[in-house]
Amino acid sequence: MSRSVLGVAIATALTVTLTGCGSGGSESATDDALEIWIRQAPDSDSHKTAQKLADGFTKASGIKTKVVALLDDFETKLQQQAAQKDLPDIVINDTAQIGNMQTQGWLREVDKASLAGSDKVSETAWKAATASDGKTWGAPFSSQAFAIIARKDWREKLGLEVPKTWDDLAALAKAFTEKDPDGNGKADSAGLLIPASTKRGYASWYASSFIYANGGDFVTSSGTGTFGATMNDTKTVEAVQWLQDQFCDAKTVNPGAVNNDTAVTHEVFENNQGGLYLTGPYVLARFAGSIGTDKIEVFPVPKGPSGGPGTLGEGENVYLMAGSQNEDGQKKFAEYAISAEGQRIGMNKDANGAIVRLPVNTEVDLAAERQDPRWQVFQDAYANAVYAPPVPNWAPIRQSSADALNAVWADCGKDVKTEMEAANTKLTQELQNQKAS
C-alpha cells in the first residue's frame, strides 16, 4: 500500500538532480551486483523468498544480485538514496506508489513491447503499471484483492451462517463481541478487527474495500488525465456511516483500533481478541499456522446495500530505477520476475513468505501451485478489484482521506456526511495541486 506523503519542494528538486545518477550503493560498474530493494522486514520469510527469486535470476542469467529488505520508512530511505544520487537498480514496491516515484524522476519508462513475456501478463496488472501520463513505468509482479479471514470455529460454535449481506456481517460481529465465542467466560473478544490508524493511510486502505463494495469511491476519472473527488458521494457516505456505526453504536470493533496499524492488528487476531479481519491473502499462511488452519475460513466481502461487489485491488511492480549503470540487467530481471518461473518462486507455494500474492502471469495456475483452496476466494475477488486511479500522486490522497475517516471513527459526535463533504473539498484541492482536476 502507498504509505508516505512526500514534500513537493523536495520532489521538484530531486526530479532535476536524478538524471544520470549512479545506483547500487557503492557499486557502479555494469558487471557489479544488481541491487534490488523490496519492502519487507529484514530476515523475514518474505525476505528469504525474495532472495530465492534473486538467486533463481542469477542462475538463469549469470547476473549477480544483492537483495536489500527494508520495511520501516521505505520511501524515506529511497529519498535519502536519491539525494545522494545513488538509487538501487531495482525496487519492488506498491502499485499505488507509481505516481509518487515517477513524478520525482526516479523511474525509467518500461518498453512493454520489448519486454519478453509481457504478453503473458494480465491487462489488469499492466494498467496498474501505467501512470497518469499514459506511459508504463513498471513491470507487474504481484496482485491481490481482499476478503475476510474469520474464526470459523467461533461462527460454528454460535450456530451462525457465513454472512451474505452487511446486515449479516454486523450480526456476526455483534455475536462475536457479546456471546463469548471463545468460551473463556470473559467479555474480551471483538467482532471486527480494523487497522484504523492514520499512519501511512491505513484507515483509508481498510475502508476502501467497503466503499468499493457499496459502489462508492474516493476519486473517479472525469476524462483523459483528469479526475474528480467523490468522497461526498452517497454510496461512499453510506459505507463510512456503516463503519462508524460499528465503532460507535454496535461497539463491535476491537479497542484501540483507531491507533492500530496492520502489524498490531495481525497480533490482535492471533491473540484470539477478534473474529473478523478484512485483509489480503499475504497473511493466510501465517494465520493458518499461528491460529490453526481448521479454525479459520475466508469469505468474500459482502456486497453493500447500494453497490458492489468490489474490493481494493493492489499489488507490486518491479520498478527500473533511473541512473542505473546496468540497464540491460534491469530489463532482464523484470523479464524474469514476470515469467512463470519467477512468479512461481515468488508465490512460495502454501508456505509463509509469499511475495507474489496472486500471479500476474496468466499461464500460472493458482490451484496447481497452492493446495489451500482459500486462496481461490481472493482470486475470485480480484475479478472485481478496484485499483487506485492513476493520479500523479496517490499518497497524499490516501493520507488525507485516512485522516477524515479516522476522525469520524474516533469521535462518535462527528456527522459522517458533513465530514465527508469537508474531506471531498480537500481532495479536490489536492487534485488541483497535482493539475489532475
Automatic annotation (TrEMBL):
* Keyword Nucleotide-binding listed: no
The answer, when asked if Aminoacyl-tRNA synthetase is one of the entry's keywords, is no
Question: What keywords is this UniProt entry annotated with?
Answer: Signal, Transport
Query: CDD domains this protein is in?
Result: PBP2_TMBP_like
Single biological process term from Gene Ontology: maltose transport
A GO MF term: maltose binding
Q: Name one Pfam family in it.
A: SBP_bac_1
Q: Which InterPro entries match?
A: SBP
Q: Name one GO cellular component term.
A: ATP-binding cassette (ABC) transporter complex, substrate-binding subunit-containing
Q: Which family does it belong to?
A: Belongs to the bacterial solute-binding protein 1 family.
What name goes with this protein? Sugar ABC transporter substrate-binding protein
